[in-house]
From TrEMBL:
Organism listed in the record: Roseburia inulinivorans DSM 16841
GO molecular function list: DNA binding
Pfam family, one: Penicillinase_R
Identification of the protein by name: Transcriptional regulator, BlaI/MecI/CopY family
Alphabetic keyword roster: DNA-binding, Transcription, Transcription regulation
A GO biological process held by the record: negative regulation of DNA-templated transcription
Amino acid sequence: MGDYELGAIQTEFAELIWEREPVSSGELVKLCSEQFEWKKSTTYTVLRKLCEKGIMKNEDGVVTSIVSREAFYAAKSGQFVEETFQGSLPAFIAAFASGKKLSKKEMDEIQQMIDDFRA
């Protein structure tokens, strides 16, 4: 897994790209000016950092993702389970479910996941 440690602003910036990709770097500057009130230099600095982390790429003024939104959040979730629950998915699920009632639909979905892994 790459270095997917992003701050809140970097994550919002990545979301902006994922929602619109492929997006021209000029359009990205305009969007960031409107949404974050960033100067052009700030947009390019944050973009460069995401490119250095291997999450985004900027080729010929067109910005696209190297890592999809789904892969990014899957990696982050795995990292969280590893760091917080010593990699134990059952411990994570128990902690997540404690204090709340799972719906039948949620239980069925979890059971289907288990069945799929066994197959």
